[in-house]
Structure formats: structure tokens, C-alpha cells
Design goal:
45% of the residues lie in helices and 15% in strands. The protein has 341 residues and is an alpha/beta fold. α7 packs across α12, α7 packs across α13 (327-336) and α8 runs antiparallel to α9 (261-270). Residues 9-85 form the Ketopantoate reductase N-terminal domain.
Length: 341
């Protein structure tokens, strides 16, 4: 890997996730370029202002480049390509064209790709469409929370400064836990983690691929339950509530899909209505002053809701293909989505 001072990274998407990752990479002295739709180029022509909940301060991000044409992903130009689109966007017609363009551009090069879009069986899908080698890419999960304050007003908790927050293009909570990369492409994961961690303020964790898949696929049943309950604080949810119990039962059904193997079976055995609540109540406290459940209402109740529903529908289809009835997930989706296969 080139040293951090000369590493070149293309970030696909300059939304809430892409900009925060780009900012941290800039602190690691990486040369960052964003690939965006033509209509978003002008917005990035000025420095971006970021509000950090971790230290209640504004960060100013500039010095990046912007491109808007797939053809500009020139052979060998980038050391890493990081995809930050949501799962629904990557799998639509434009996303498929983008994936093919990335595969063609980096064929025969040493460019490494990190696929951060979440959907069932994403690694197999991405490799099939892009044609990338096994050792040329890996998948990831963004674990920090970020959003544009202009799009939603979250409840304020001290010491959040509302005047600073109002000046920000994006706001985020990181607490040194930006993203997880799976170990299916070890050289890719290790190289990018070394680069990103040089920021000194945020870190990447490398975890077993099965662990990310179980988390990424099953957690959306919980979000569906929260949506049906009206997004109450986790501390206000009754673990014996019928909707909550249905959501957790659906989580367990997803965890036991064959794609998750023995790790999924063990996860399902450890998953209970009380344990999931306990974990999220602790997270709710940890992430203050950012309001976790109101963020979830904005993000999973709206912004990426299409992705979430598609992922649950795909999980149901996968279970039925294995001959499983998936009664809890079927019932959850009857309340949550009209798109049941």
C-alpha cells in the first residue's frame, strides 16, 4: 500500500456517510475524490461544514476533488474505491451500470474496492455484477450516525450547541467507531484500515464476514418493529409488547438462514426480547447527546426505508427457498410492507 500521504481514494456518493468518511480520510492525508451525480457537483464546490456530536464542535472540510462521470474512474487512478450508496440505490438500473463501470475501470489494476451498501447476499451480487477478483474487494458496514440538519430537526440534548448545529451541512456521531470491514478480502480490509486509522480520530474494525452479514440482515426486523411502534425510545419499550416480540422473532428467523451458518444459529439462541432491548438502551445512553431513536425515525423510518423493506423481503424469499415458513417475518412484513413475495 502507498503511504497515507499519497493514497488516493474515490468515494462513491457524497451524502451524510460519504462526506464524514472523506473528512476522516483527509485527516489521514489521503487524496479524496467524490463521484456524484452532475446535479450535486455545485453543492460540493464550497467547503463543507460538519458538526461533531463527540466534541460539540464544527469541522471544516475542503481540498477534495469531484467527478460526475463513470468514465472518469480511470484505470489505476485510485488506490481504493469506497461505495457509500444505500442498498436500493446500488441495485437499481443506475447502480448496476455504476458497478459494471467500476469493475471495468479497475480490471487488471491494483485498485481495491470496499462495497458499503447493505442488502442480502451483497458480496456475491457485487462480485457477479462487477467481475472483481476475490482479493480485490471486501464489504463493510458504516456504524457511525450522520445526517443533514437541514433535512430533520432532532431533539436537543446538552451540551449540543444549536447555533453550531444550524451552520452544519452534516452532523455526525462517531466515538471512534466509524465502520466495520469484513475479513473476506483481508488485504483490502487491512490496507484500508491502516489508512483510515491514521486519521487519529476514528477507526475501522475488521470482523468476520459472517458477523457483519448476521448484523446487517437481522437488525432491520428490529427497525421494522420500532417503526410499527412509532419509534419510542428503547427505554420505553415493553419487552413483552406483542409487536416487539414479533420483531425479535423475525430477527431470529433471519439469523438462522443457512447463509449465516453456525454463527447465525448461535446468535439466534442468544437473542431475546430483553437482550436486544438491553443492548439498545445502553447504546441510546452512549450516543447522547445525539438522540438515537429520533435519528432512527429519520433514517430507517424514511431516508433508507425502501432499502430496509427490500432487505426484509429478500430475507423472507431466502428463507422460503430453504423450505422455511418464516411465520414471524411473514407477519411482520404484512404489517410493514405490501411487497411480500
Amino acid at each position: 500500500m502507498k503511504n497515507a500521504a499519497t493514497s488516493r481514494v474515490l468515494i462513491v456518493g457524497a451524502g451524510s456517510v460519504g462526506l464524514i468518511v472523506g473528512y476522516h480520510l483527509s485527516l489521514a492525508k489521503a487524496d479524496v475524490t467524490f463521484l456524484v451525480r452532475p446535479g450535486r457537483v455545485e453543492r460540493l464546490s464550497r467547503p463543507q461544514t460538519l458538526y461533531c456530536y463527540d466534541d460539540n464542535s464544527l469541522k471544516h472540510y475542503e481540498g477534495y476533488s469531484v467527478i460526475s462521470d463513470h468514465a472518469d474512474i480511470a484505470e489505476g487512478r485510485f488506490d481504493y474505491i469506497l461505495i457509500t450508496l444505500d442498498g436500493a440505490s446500488l441495485q437499481n438500473e443506475d447502480g448496476v451500470a455504476l458497478t459494471k463501470a467500476i469493475g471495468k475501470a479497475v480490471e487488471g489494476t491494483e485498485t481495491k474496492v470496499i462495497q458499503g451498501s447493505m442488502f442480502v447476499d451483497s458480496r456475491r451480487w457485487f462480485q457477479s455484477v462487477s467481475g472483481l477478483r476475490d482479493d480485490q474487494f471486501t464489504t463493510g458496514y458504516f456504524s457511525f450516525l450522520s445526517y443533514p440538519p437541514s433535512a430533520v430537526t432532532l431533539p436537543l440534548h446538552g451540551p449540543t450547541d444549536p447555533e453550531l448545529l444550524a451552520k452544519a451541512d452534516q452532523a455526525y456521531y462517531d466515538n471512534q467507531a466509524a465502520m466495520m470491514l469484513d475479513d473476506s478480502g483481508p488485504a483490502v480490509a487491512e490496507g484500508f484500515a491502516e489508512l483510515y486509522n491514521a486519521s487519529g480520530v476514528s477507526k475501522v474494525a475488521i470482523v468476520p464476514a459472517a458477523g457483519i452479514a448476521i448484523l446487517a440482515n437481522a437488525i432491520f426486523a428490529m427497525f421494522a418493529g420500532c417503526d410499527l411502534l412509532g419509534w419510542p425510545k428503547f427505554s420505553d419499550i415493553d419487552p413483552t409488547d406483542e409487536t416487539w416480540r414479533l420483531a425479535i422473532a423475525a430477527m431470529k428467523e433471519i439469523q438462522t438462514l443457512s447463509m449465516h451458518g453456525e454463527a447465525g444459529r448461535q446468535a439466534a439462541e442468544a437473542t431475546t426480547e430483553a437482550s436486544v432491548l438491553e443492548e439498545n438502551v445502553a447504546m441510546e445512553k452512549q450516543m447522547l447527546p445525539l438522540d438515537l431513536q429520533e435519528f432512527n425515525r429519520f433514517h430507517h423510518g424514511g431516508k433508507v426505508n425502501k432499502q430496509d423493506r427490500a432487505l426484509l423481503t429478500a430475507s423472507l424469499a431466502a428463507g422460503r427457498a430453504e423450505g422455511k415458513e418464516m411465520p414471524a417475518l411473514t407477519e411482520l412484513l404484512r404489517h410493514y410492507s405490501s411487497e411480500i413475495p
